[in-house]
Amino acid sequence: MSNAGLLFDTAPADLPEAALKTQRLAENAAPASIAADLADAKAVHVSNRHPAAFVIGADQTLELEGRLFDKPTDLADARAQLLALRGRTHRLHAAVSLASRGEVVWRTLETATLHVRAFSEAFLEQYLAAEAAEIVHCVGAYRLEALGAQLFERIEGDYFTILGLPLLSLLEALRLRGEIGS
Predict the structure, then answer these.
(1) SS3 of 115, please?
(2) Cα(85)–Cα(72) distance, rounded to whole angstroms?
(3) CA 74/CA 141 separation, integer angstroms
């Protein structure tokens, strides 16, 4: 957001995300709905603490054939996720919500479809060695803006959605509300 010229402060939502995900999964919620629910919850939670602020909340989920993936817990989990994605197509759902005075005033959910190539074991080992420190913080164990781009044969969707924040839609919403110049 800084590169797009936005001035902002950050405030952690400090929500029990894992418990919220577990609850929504028990209710048979779709991965896309879970991303939207978490973005809303984060925006509202922070907005309640900062009622004079316009608050942005965001979340992203990865879905492979209806299965929700979380960020890997360690390098072994990252390896397992990448092997599960190898040669297959998955979807990333990125949601962003705007809240003011504890109420969601705007939201969007965008989805990108990513086709992972059938990479070799040798490539996987090189990739894990090079990206180990970063990929355990990323759902799907990849960063498109880095070496992870080599994992894919085709991508359908917005680049910013893949990074986790539908930035173009957010910028338009902020313009419409007079928060940034038109």
Answers:
(1) strand
(2) 13
(3) 10
CATH class of 17-176: alpha beta
CA 69 to mean position of chain CA atoms: 11
Q: What is the pLDDT of residues 93-139, one digit of tens each?
A: 999 999 999 999 999 999 999 999 999 999 999 999 999 889 999 99
77 is catalytic: no
The residue from 14, 37, 59, 158 that is catalytic is: 59
Strand ranges (DSSP E) for 120-172?
Answer: 152-156
Could you identify the residue written with the tokens 């993936």? 69
Burial of 142 per CB tally in 10 Å (0-12, 13-18, 19+): buried
- List of residues 6+ apart from 34 with CB closer than 8 A: 21, 24, 25, 59, 61, 68
Q: Who's near 3: CB < 8 A, 6+ residues apart?
A: none
Instruction: Please state, in angstroms and as integers, the Cα–Cα distance from residue 51 to each residue in 44, 54, 101, 123, following that order.
Output: 10, 8, 4, 49
Tens-place pLDDT, residues 25-44: 999 999 999 999 999 999 99
**Domain residue ranges of the chain, discontinuous segments joined by +:** 17-176
